[in-house]
Design a protein that fits this description.
By secondary structure, this protein is an alpha+beta fold. It is built from 23 helices and 24 strands. 41% of the residues are buried. The N terminus is likely disordered.
Length: 770
């Protein structure tokens, strides 16, 4: 007996079947095509009008849409929709095909010879209650439809997630800014910007030919960050002491001083030593690297990690000595070191710098602003003593200093320094100085002082040796000042070179009796003879001719002295320079008005005295002295110095006459300057021997010996002065300074390639017969 065919589930138009009450009937899940029997597959393809058309699969209906299994008795069915027509016909045909009209029991078999089919699903049972009993084909599974999720749910989810993330960020900000701000600020102290000064390269000082007298080489300042030597930073209770023990032998600084500098944790910068050599810097760097390597081992790293743990969790209060680098907070800063290649050559003029690299004497001090340049600054971030390259920083570059080119001739300076040093030693004198000046330009070609010092070794120098006595010492010039008195007498026309002067052995003036340096009978001298024999009495008599009265004469002489530059700054502006002492003429009282004409009762420095003779050698025109020839700016531009100021003091004729009179001092057998003669050259000069004022007591003690002259006399080029203070072996100027003058003048003329004189000296008569 064949299994009854399952009536079609819907009408041929594919609309869902409806129950008797007119509501759509729920469809059973549709089995896969391969699992359906052939009859079911054929019935699926039929339509109501007999055409073979495969029904389109219907979407599964939700459970809530399933109709109830029966209608109430006597109820009228709802009118079916057109799409359900085929379904209603198939439902009406089911009793005829199945046999019985009553719904078979689920437990009853469909027929005597049929096998019991599998129990159909409940929804299929509700559709087949009025059909015949018997096995049914398996129902198709429900068709799954892909549906998009609700976008509102996604938006809610994203909003919630972002809110949580922002809440975490906000909480972290509160923690950083409010709760942990103090602790974080303290931690940040170990990673903050350091500001380091950049020292400008100091300008050089050179001689007139460009040879360096003072220059700068690379050096290093050794610095430290004291906060990096605390027990918390190093893990060592005595890190400053350990670091001091390592650094002291290298830096030459005591361990106590270094340890004291490192025990200042309130500062982040401490300079331990300045201007160290590259060798010292390299020793410290190598030692620091070696300690870093040992401290970076695995065992040491573990010990450092334990420093952060509490004691009950195995924490440590310190690390082993080999696991700590006490030099981690030691750094070096590149700077410069001042060196003097010629050691003590012109040291008293050039000067020196102190430990800070600042000029402390001589031209180094006078031109500090120009030589020093402008320092810069650099800021960088550091962490644990190491530079953080990615943290940025800023740099203001330093501006190098200006170079000075001096008027000093290095060779002449050497000759002058050697000559005065030897004579000071031979005379057993306290000190001496030599000045060499170009008479036409006023430029100082040499300025030597003995004893001198080596600016490369200031520790070995005495305090009294560090100055420049040639411009800082004020001394009574003695007979060399007679040149100014004679210039006043000649220039005012009160006398001529051959004016007869009677010179007694003594002369009473005011409250004092005056003598010459030697006892003598009455001398009958010309004015040239007074100068040649250096007679004090003859000079007093000549000066009295300057005015009708002594006060008038004082005013005239005082005016000339001032024009020669006495009692006034020389124009160099040298640190510690003395302007000398010259009282106002109206204040010359008693014997002072008679001693000033021959060089006692007033004081000068050696450069002022030299300038007086250069004025006469230059035809009566004074040129202000200078020692700087020019400057070279950082951009390499050379700027010559302005020429010295000029002023006429005496007439050219007066200067010529005085020159001839000064030649007699050297050439005449009665003159006092015979030892200053230079073979082949006409020399004009004057000796000087004066009582010396002891600067410590303010009283006369000892002598000042001097000689000043120029050559060639017929066409002067160079003036040389020699002054020796408080000699023991002799005291006359011609005796002690004459040889020094000769030695320095001869060398200078040859160095400057000055041709010898082509004429003889005039040899003016020095006396007359009564």
């Amino acid at each position: 007996m064949s299994t009854p065919r399952q009536p079609p589930r819907g009408s041929g138009d594919g609309k869902p079947a409806r129950a008797s009450d007119g509501r759509p009937r729920a469809q059973a899940p549709r089995a896969p095509r391969a699992a359906q029997p052939p009859q079911a597959r054929r019935a699926e393809g039929r339509t109501q009008d007999g055409q073979s058309k495969r029904a389109q699969p219907k979407p599964a209906q939700p459970k809530s849409a399933q109709p109830k299994s029966a209608q109430p008795k006597g109820a009228q069915p709802k009118p079916a929709q057109p799409r359900a027509a085929g379904t209603a016909q198939r439902r009406a045909a089911r009793p005829a095909a199945g046999g019985a009209s009553a719904r078979p029991s689920a437990k009853s078999p469909a027929g005597p010879s049929a096998k019991s089919p599998a129990k159909p699903p409940a929804r299929a049972q509700s559709r087949l209650r009025s059909g015949p009993a018997g096995p049914r084909p398996p129902a198709r599974p429900p068709t799954r439809t892909i549906r998009l999720a609700d976008p509102r749910k996604r938006l809610r989810f994203v909003t919630v997630v972002l809110s949580l993330v922002f809440s975490v960020f906000a909480g972290r900000l509160v923690q950083l800014q409010l709760i942990d701000s103090d602790a974080l600020a303290a931690d940040a102290n170990t990673n903050r910007y350091q500001v380091v000064p950049l020292t400008a390269e100091r300008g050089s000082i050179t001689s007139s030919d460009g040879v360096a007298l003072a220059t700068t080489v690379d050096a290093y300042d050794i610095t430290a960050d004291p906060q990096m030597f605390t027990p918390e930073s190093t893990g060592l209770p005595d890190a400053p002491e350990q670091a001091a023990a390592l650094l002291a032998p290298i830096l030459g600084v005591s361990k106590e001083q270094l340890a004291a500098d490192l025990h200042t944790p309130k500062t982040r910068y401490k300079r331990l030593a300045t201007q160290q050599t590259p060798d010292a810097k390299n020793q410290i760097s190598d030692l620091k690297s070696a300690l870093d390597k040992k401290a970076g081992s695995k065992a040491c790293t573990a010990q450092k990690a334990q420093l952060k743990l509490p004691a009950d969790k195995g924490g440590r209060t310190r690390v082993d000595n080999e696991c700590a680098n006490p030099l981690a907070g030691v750094f070096n800063r590149e700077t410069q070191r001042r060196v003097y290649p010629s050691d003590g050559l012109a040291a008293n003029l050039v000067g020196f710098v102190n430990a800070e690299g600042v000029g402390a004497g001589g031209l180094e001090q006078q031109y500090q602003a120009e030589l020093a340049g402008k320092d810069g600054r650099s800021s960088y971030a550091q962490a644990g003593g190491r530079l953080v390259p990615t943290a940025g920083g800023s740099t203001d570059a330093a501006v190098p200093g200006t170079d000075l080119r001096l008027t000093v001739n290095r060779d002449i300076q050497w000759a002058a320094q050697r000559a005065i040093t030897d004579q000071v030693s031979n005379a057993g004198a306290e000190k001496g100085y030599v000045v060499v000046q170009d008479v036409r330009t006023g430029q100082v070609l040499a300025m030597a002082t003995s004893p001198g010092f080596n600016p490369n070794d200031l520790a070995s120098a005495k305090a009294g040796q560090l100055g420049n006595a040639a411009v800082q010492d004020a001394y009574e010039p003695g007979s060399t000042a007679k040149l100014m008195t004679m210039a006043a007498v000649l220039d005012t026309g009160k006398a001529t070179w051959d004016t007869h002067v009677t010179v007694p052995n003594t002369l009473q003036r005011a409250d004092r009796v005056f003598h010459d340096d030697v006892d003598h009978e009455t001398w009958y001298l010309t004015l040239a003879g007074v100068l040649a024999k250096s007679s004090n009495i003859g000079t007093i008599e000549a000066a009295e001719q300057l005015g009708a009265t002594q006060p008038e004469a004082n005013q005239v002489l005082g005016g000339y002295l001032q024009k020669f530059g006495i009692g006034q700054p020389s124009g160099l502006g040298f640190p510690g320079e003395t302007r000398g002492i010259l009282a106002k003429p109206e204040d010359w009282k008693g014997s002072q008005q008679y001693t000033i004409p021959f060089g006692q009762g007033l004081s000068v420095n050696a450069l002022q005295a030299t300038s007086v003779f250069s004025t006469i050698a230059n035809g009566g025109v004074r040129v202000a002295p200078s020692v700087v020839q020019g400057t070279t700016s950082p951009d390499g531009k050379y700027t010559p110095a302005a020429p010295g100021a000029q002023s006429r003091v005496v007439s050219e004729q007066t200067a010529k006459t005085l020159t001839e009179m000064l030649e007699s001092v050297v050439t005449d057998e009665q003159g006092t300057g015979g030892k200053a003669a230079v073979p082949g050259y006409r020399v004009a000069g004057k000796t000087g021997t004066a009582n010396r004022v002891d600067p410590k007591t303010g009283r006369y003690s000892g002598y000042t010996a001097s000689f000043i002259g120029f050559a060639p006399a017929e066409q002067p080029r160079v003036t040389v002065s020699c002054v020796i203070q408080d000699p023991v072996n002799g005291h006359f100027g011609g005796q002690l300074c004459g040889p020094v003058f000769k030695q320095v003048m001869e060398f200078s003329l040859k160095t400057l390639q000055v041709p010898p004189s082509g004429s003889e000296a005039p040899n003016l008569p020095v006396d007359w017969k009564p």
